Amino acid sequence: MAEIQFSRGVAEEIVPDVRLTRSKDGTNGKAIFYFDKPKALANNGVEITGMYLVDEEGELVSREVNAKFVNGEPAGIEAIYVMKSVSAWDRFMRFMERYAKENGLGFTKS
Q: Average pLDDT for residues 56-63, to the nearest whole number?
């Protein structure tokens, strides 16, 4: 089980576009998630409290979550997860491997 949540216990159904950057020395990195018309923005009374990456190892948390609106209508969510160590990068990649497998995602190196 690997899922992304914006409110604890409520899984986001929309699969995001994810872009990764990493420093040349590998000591830190950043993952930028973009969700196009996510269910979390639907008028369902759920409060967005952060982005939670949940799997069998536990939970990774980011508070850098921003909603995007077009003409006053919710259009998407952009969230950034920052990794400040090699171990944090490795943990994130383990989550992403599980999430990708469950959601049929692939990896393209630029």
A: 97
